[in-house]
Backbone:
């Protein structure tokens, strides 16, 4: 017999009118049962006549109370606390009404319509039968689902309140038949106990649970789990080809309740994420509160996050400058939504569309706002693209930085924080070399005699997760399209950190600087890009080699296999922050640097790319091209 079809579990819900009729039958049954119990199963003609006479009144009261409280509107197989409360309110209010009517009739006529004992018995039976009928229906539905041959076996990590809610949410999923076979928890107090008949195991037994059972999915439901512990769990599951899902924070649950649609697959950013950085907010606020801050490249990945973090410290004014109109518009919308309840912040930022190479526009901005702080994140950063367009790289990354830095000195800006890259270390491409030249210029300007006030600080870090042009969005797009996933080289590695983490360290470095330093960030361990691709494929629930392929396409122009944060001639000294060190860099004389950079800039007019790159190699001797047409210039230089 097809019970699933009879109970309409798979495709449709029981109509509301059917639920209402069933409830009314239950109430009428309870009403007549109350008479039978009251008179000890010995009903005479008078009792039967009285019961039939008053049945319409009781039925009418129940209909009205059910209609007002909408007891029939819930989906019966998802019955929960709120449904039970509605039933209680409906029956209690109706019973109180009957008692009041009974009392008024006694006062008016000296007799009762119904003995009070019958009203109370009817109430108790109705309450018990209505709630138990819904729970029975719910249990039948869940049992039929659990016994389905196509069930997904799930382990829930976290046996607290969130874990319990997660299990019950999965039990109610109408699209997939889930069976929770185990809870895992790090709390010793819960080990060995059961929740809804499901055993709880300790955290270090995860591998044993997986090996003893056919586990299809693991759901992480702990709300305050550390990033390191979460990464360990995900890595273990990926080893066994188990899908990993995540329960969102409680504040993101819809109307305070978890919906199974909110339980999402874990993404690669969570796997690479690290425990949050603790910043000295008091010191940060001291440097930023009430100050005027200029952020260039504000529409980019780094610039926009710097803007969000800076605004949280209540600057007097934040000028968000970029030449990209549409991304700036999107940033403005995001800020209005993010800070919509904070009028002080909403009035403290201004969007400015401008090019950092436009000296006249920049001077007007500095004249109008007189910024105390500059965070310079504007740059061309795509390595292969800049390898084909050296004049564009030099024009923006070198010339634009020079104009901005010179203007900051002219208007006596207090601090100028330059956002650089690990590709500036022993550069193998035009982009990295252009950033290194900009580093050299700003550092030399810090000690120049013409600069009496502005402190120049350089921050250097690697790739950030989710940034524009990052490999992760690229891989995700390829996976969604069915592959192949393209990797340039099997041994290529990169450092990764999250955008918020990188920007927090930029702010911290800008605060602690004395001027002239190059700050290096702890990027953690380097990640092989091919391993990253494999993990992303697994996290997507696909099988490498079966569902999707990885193809090696060769290094791109200017790309190197391993990035570095220090050159061979540099070393570091520690700071008070464990994730920030200072690179001990050879100082440069401003007069000499200024002269050679002006010579480089003069070559832009004719756009003779070979001459531009040759000059860059003279300024940065360690610039050795890799997989590039400019390798020939290195051969000439060596000879």
Residues:
């Amino acid at each position: 017999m097809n019970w699933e079809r009879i109970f309409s579990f798979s495709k449709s819900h029981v109509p509301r009118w059917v639920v209402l009729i069933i409830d009314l039958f239950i109430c009428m049954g309870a009403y007549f049962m109350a008479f039978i119990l009251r008179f000890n199963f010995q009903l005479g003609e008078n009792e039967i006549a009285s019961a039939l006479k008053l049945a319409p009144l009781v039925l009418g009261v129940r209909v009205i109370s059910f209609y007002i409280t909408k007891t029939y509107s819930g989906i019966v197989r998802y019955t929960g606390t709120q449904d039970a409360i509605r039933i209680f309110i409906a029956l209690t209010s109706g019973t109180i009404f009957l008692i009041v009517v009974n009392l008024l009739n006694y006062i008016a006529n000296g007799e009762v319509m119904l003995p009070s004992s019958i009203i109370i018995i009817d109430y108790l039976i109705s309450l018990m039968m209505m709630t138990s009928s819904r729970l029975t229906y719910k249990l039948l539905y869940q049992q039929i689902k659990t016994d389905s041959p196509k069930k997904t076996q799930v382990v829930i990590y976290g046996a607290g309140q969130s874990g319990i809610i997660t299990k019950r949410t999965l039990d109610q999923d109408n699209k997939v038949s889930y069976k929770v076979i185990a809870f895992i928890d790090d709390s010793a107090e819960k080990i060995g106990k059961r929740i809804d008949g499901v055993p709880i195991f300790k955290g270090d037994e995860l591998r044993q649970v997986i090996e003893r059972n056919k586990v299809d999915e693991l759901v992480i439901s702990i709300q305050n789990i550390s990033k390191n512990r979460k990464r360990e769990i995900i890595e273990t599951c990926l080893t066994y080809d188990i899908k990993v899902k995540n329960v969102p924070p409680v504040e993101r649950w819809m109307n305070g309740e978890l919906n199974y649609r909110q339980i999402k697959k874990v993404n690669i950013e969570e796997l690479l994420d690290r425990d949050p950085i603790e910043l000295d907010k008091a010191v940060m606020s001291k440097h930023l509160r009430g100050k005027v801050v200029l952020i260039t490249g504000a529409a980019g990945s780094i610039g926009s996050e710097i803007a969000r973090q800076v605004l949280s410290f209540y600057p007097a004014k934040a000028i968000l400058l970029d030449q990209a109109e549409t991304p700036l518009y999107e940033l403005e919308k995001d800020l209005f939504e993010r800070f919509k309840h904070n009028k002080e912040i909403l009035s403290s930022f201004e969007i400015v569309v401008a090019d950092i190479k436009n000296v006249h526009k920049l001077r007007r901005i500095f004249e109008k706002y007189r910024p105390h702080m500059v965070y310079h994140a504007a740059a061309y950063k795509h390595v292969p693209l800049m390898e084909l367009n050296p004049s564009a790289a030099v024009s923006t990354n070198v010339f634009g930085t020079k104009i901005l830095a010179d203007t900051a000195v002219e208007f006596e800006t207090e601090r100028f924080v330059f956002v650089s890259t690990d590709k500036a270390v022993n550069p193998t491409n035009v982009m990295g070399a252009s950033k290194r030249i900009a580093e050299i210029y700003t550092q030399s300007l810090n000690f120049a005699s013409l600069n009496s006030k502005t402190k120049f600080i350089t921050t250097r870090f690697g790739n950030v997760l989710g940034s524009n042009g990052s490999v992760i969005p690229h891989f995700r797009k390829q996976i969604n399209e069915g592959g192949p996933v393209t990797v340039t080289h099997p041994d290529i590695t990169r450092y990764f950190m999250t955008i918020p983490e990188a920007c927090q360290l930029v702010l911290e470095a800008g605060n602690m600087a004395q001027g002239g330093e190059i700050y290096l960030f702890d990027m953690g361990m380097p990640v092989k890009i091919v391993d990253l691709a494999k993990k992303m494929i697994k996290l997507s629930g696909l099988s490498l080699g079966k569902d999707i392929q990885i193809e090696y396409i060769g290094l791109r122009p200017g790309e190197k296999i391993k990035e570095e944060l220090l050159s061979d001639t540099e070393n570091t000294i520690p700071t008070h922050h464990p994730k920030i060190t200072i690179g001990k860099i050879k100082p440069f004389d401003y007069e000499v640097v200024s002269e050679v950079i002006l010579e480089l800039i003069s070559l832009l007019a004719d756009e003779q790319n070979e001459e531009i790159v040759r000059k860059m190699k003279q300024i940065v001797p360690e610039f050795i091209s890799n997989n590039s047409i400019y390798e020939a210039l290195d051969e000439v230089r060596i000879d």
